[in-house]
From TrEMBL:
The keyword Transcription regulation applies. Residues 171-269 form the HTH araC/xylS-type domain. Transmembrane segments: none annotated. The keyword Transcription applies. Gene3D superfamilies: Homeodomain-like. PANTHER family: HTH-TYPE TRANSCRIPTIONAL ACTIVATOR RHAS-RELATED (PTHR46796), TRANSCRIPTIONAL REGULATORY PROTEIN (PTHR46796:SF2). InterPro entries: AraC-bd, AraC_XylS_family_regulators, Homeodomain-like_sf, HTH-like, HTH_AraC. The lineage of its organism: Bacteria, Pseudomonadati, Pseudomonadota, Alphaproteobacteria, Acetobacterales. GO terms for molecular function: DNA-binding transcription factor activity; sequence-specific DNA binding. Pfam families: AraC_binding (PF02311), HTH_18 (PF12833). This is Transcriptional regulator, AraC family. It comes from the Bacteria. It comes from Muricoccus roseus. Keywords: DNA-binding, Transcription, Transcription regulation.
Length: 281
């Protein structure tokens, strides 16, 4: 059986400087080299063989690769059939900002290869969030989930628990989302508007107060407005623009996942007005 051709797909997230790579190699991948960023990746298929810290490592599906800035490493297939993986390149300033408890210092990974299913899945979700058009809050939340799962591997404890001040932070963030649901705020912008110390305090406070994340809440209130507009006869394209969805397809995906119907089908059921999205038999 012939192995598929080598392939590398890279996306760059401008606000954070993070790069996400999805790659597939049949044999040799790359020679010994270094990066300025922190590398966190997960093997999706095959055996990923690499040299790091003076020893050869073999990563199989689900295992997580952790490489510090300036650590020399290479890469190749460790078995027939090649290998595939996903990798996030995390800039040093971004990682430091997410772990402010020791300013001016960098932590270190305890190992370059580990078994951590939760971290591996967080890496996959973050890569998918960066690869596809999505809300800024969704991308920030996915990246912060990676950061949170990285903490034990860096010897850093979780941030402080919510305090009484957090109730006001959560309320102000909710009001901001309600007042401007058509915008696409980032977690840092929303944290500043709510008076939070940082986006991590905002996330903890919001979940403690409302049982969900700011992004999930934003999607929910957008969908509620979309239902009302569709029921009043507005067309899906108009609804998508008014409610903050990137386009009609984005609205359609979210609406079907929430309610089991396409927006046009829901509009037709509520108004009796046929729509181009109504299924034909």
């Amino acid at each position: 059986m012939t192995a598929p051709p080598d392939e590398v797909r890279l996306v760059h997230d401008a606000p954070t400087g993070i790069e996400a790579i999805r790659a597939r190699f049949a044999a040799h991948a790359y020679d010994l080299h270094r990066h300025d960023d922190w590398l966190v990746g997960v093997t999706d298929r095959g055996v990923q063989d690499f040299l790091c810290r003076g020893a050869r490592r073999r990563s199989t599906p689900g295992r997580v690769i952790l490489i510090e800035p300036q650590e020399a490493h290479d890469g190749q297939a460790g078995a027939e059939g090649g290998f595939a993986y996903r990798m996030l390149y995390l800039p040093r300033p971004w990682l430091r900002a997410g772990m402010p408890e020791a300013p001016g210092t960098d932590p270190g990974f305890r190992a370059s290869l580990c078994d951590d299913a939760a971290l591996g899945e967080a890496i996959r979700r973050a890569c998918r969030a960066l690869e596809a058009p999505s809300e800024r809050l969704l991308r920030d939340a996915a990246l912060d989930a990676v950061l949170r799962r990285l903490r034990p591997h860096l010897g850093r404890e979780e941030g402080a628990a919510p305090t009484g001040r957090d109730a006001g932070v959560a309320r102000r963030a909710r009001e901001r989302l309600q007042d401007a649901m058509e915008s696409d705020p980032g977690a840092d912008d929303l944290a500043r508007a709510a008076g939070a110390a940082d986006r991590f305090q905002l996330a903890r406070a919001f979940r403690a107060a409302y049982g969900t994340s700011p992004h999930a809440y934003l999607v929910q209130i957008r969908l509620l407005r979309a239902r009302r507009m569709l029921a009043a006869g507005a067309r899906p394209a108009e609804v998508a623009a008014a409610c903050g969805f990137s386009d009609q397809s984005h609205l359609g995906r979210r609406f079907r996942r929430a309610y089991g119907l396409a927006p046009g089908a829901y509009r037709a059921l509520r108004t009796g007005v046929p729509d181009g999205e109504w299924p034909r038999r």
